[in-house]
Write a structure and sequence with these properties.
- The structure is a single chain.
- This protein has a seven-stranded parallel sheet, sandwiched between helices.
- Helix content is about 45%, strand content about 15%.
- It has about 400 residues and is an alpha/beta fold.
- The relative contact order is 0.11.
- Bound molecules: magnesium ion (MG).
């Protein structure tokens, strides 16, 4: 494999840190050109020094001085603000962009990278949730491939290698079920942020861990899969698989099902996206089937996990509805993390916001940004009625 020059947007988050661990294992194959972070200036500085980045961006402009003072003596160029991310990501020195920012805020820079024809390793699923139709058509227009990083989507992508374009009849998207899979509604009603952050299988950032606990994450992933693999959403089936060993499966018209397996470790799908189509070695835990003993499956329960049902509604409505749902979810998840609302208030706020923002059937990018702002405002208003 020829050496790849990469940009990591959101390098101090969970995916960003694990991506740099992949790079650490293959220093001869990857050059880190650009690192960006929102707030964590100390980690950004140490990453930039360790990997010899050429450029870094700290989005929080109040931390610029601190980062610049630490890095400029080492001839690393330092910038501030989201506008700088959007400019630098288009640079000639970059082959591939890993988008590992959290939430809707990742959309603008992802679009900038796609328009510059960069290969995208996509970890920011909210980009496709909010603007899937637009982002997919831009990716085709500018010849910018989108390689999935989300473990389920990497699994589907891996299952499709060697399928010679055979028609997919169904995608089986696996879900761990989160920490409350076996809990009844009354008990789930009283859960704390700490309990929700204690995910049984995956080591992830706070936002996606709460999304896993509500199962909204699986709804976001159905939408993500629908755009990545250009399939009818009805063909994507969610199945709860608590061991999280099968990362997802593809079923073909002859009934054959191809699955991708491994111990849950995000470094594997991150690495596959960065090295595709090559497969590299990885220092991780390998499967022991006799030790596993059994793998189990069950249907998802939208009664105990209403956020998943709302996601299904948003998918069938289409248009800007997934964007509305996503914005409301971001507001509600933050409020839950701050202990201002209860667990089921998250789905309550999403439902009220989905009903309260104007529906647009075929939004352009401008409309998506406007919808996002309106939905954030509406969700904050709705939030007030749910505060403890
Ligand atoms: Mg996932």
């Amino acid at each position: 494999m020829e050496k790849r020059r990469i940009a990591i947007l959101g390098s101090t988050g969970s995916i960003g840190r694990q991506a740099l661990d992949v790079v650490r294992q293959h220093r001869d194959l990857f050059d880190v050109e650009l690192l960006t972070a929102n707030n964590n200036s100390a980690l950004l500085v140490s990453q930039a020094l360790e990997f010899g980045a050429n450029n870094v961006v700290i989005c929080n402009e109040s931390k610029y001085e601190e980062v610049a003072e630490a890095l400029q003596p080492h001839f690393i160029k330092v910038f501030a603000g989201m506008k700088s991310v959007c400019d630098l990501v288009t640079g000639d020195g970059i082959d591939m962009v890993l988008t590992a920012m959290v939430g809707f805020s990742g959309l603008e820079s992802t679009v900038a990278a796609i328009k510059a024809g960069k290969a995208i390793a996509l970890a920011n699923k909210e980009t496709l949730v909010a603007a899937g139709a637009i982002v997919s058509s831009l990716s085709r227009k500018h010849g910018a491939p989108i390689l999935p990083v989300d473990s389920e989507h990497s699994a589907i992508f891996q299952c499709l290698q060697g399928s010679h374009g055979a028609k997919i009849s169904r995608i089986h998207l696996t879900a761990s079920g989160g920490p409350f899979r076996t809990w009844d509604k009354e008990k789930i009603c009283k859960v704390t942020p700490a309990e929700a952050l204690n995910h049984p299988r995956w080591n992830m950032g706070q936002k996606v861990t709460i999304d896993s606990a509500t199962m909204m994450n699986k709804g976001l992933e159905v939408i993500e899969a629908r755009w990545l693999f250009d399939t009818d959403p009805d063909m994507i089936k969610v199945v709860v698989h608590p061991q999280s060993v099968i990362h997802s499966m593809v079923e073909f018209e002859d009934g054959a099902v191809i699955a991708q397996l491994g111990y849950p470790d995000m470094r594997e799908p991150i690495q596959y996206a960065l090295s595709y189509p090559e497969r590299l070695s990885l220092d991780n835990r390998k499967l022991d089937f006799a030790e596993l003993g059994e793998l189990t499956f069950q249907a998802p329960d939208t009664d105990r996990f209403p956020a998943l049902g709302l996601a299904f509604e948003a998918i069938s409505a289409g248009g800007n509805m997934p964007c509305i749902m996503n914005a409301a979810n971001e507001v509600a998840v933050n409020a839950f993390l701050e202990n201002r609302i209860g667990f089921y208030d998250i789905s309550g706020i999403i439902e009220e916001t989905m009903a309260g923002v104007d529906f647009v059937g075929e939004p352009d990018l401008e409309t998506i940004f406007m919808t996002n702002r309106e939905a954030l405002d509406k969700a904050r208003l709705n939030l007030n009625r749910h505060l403890r």
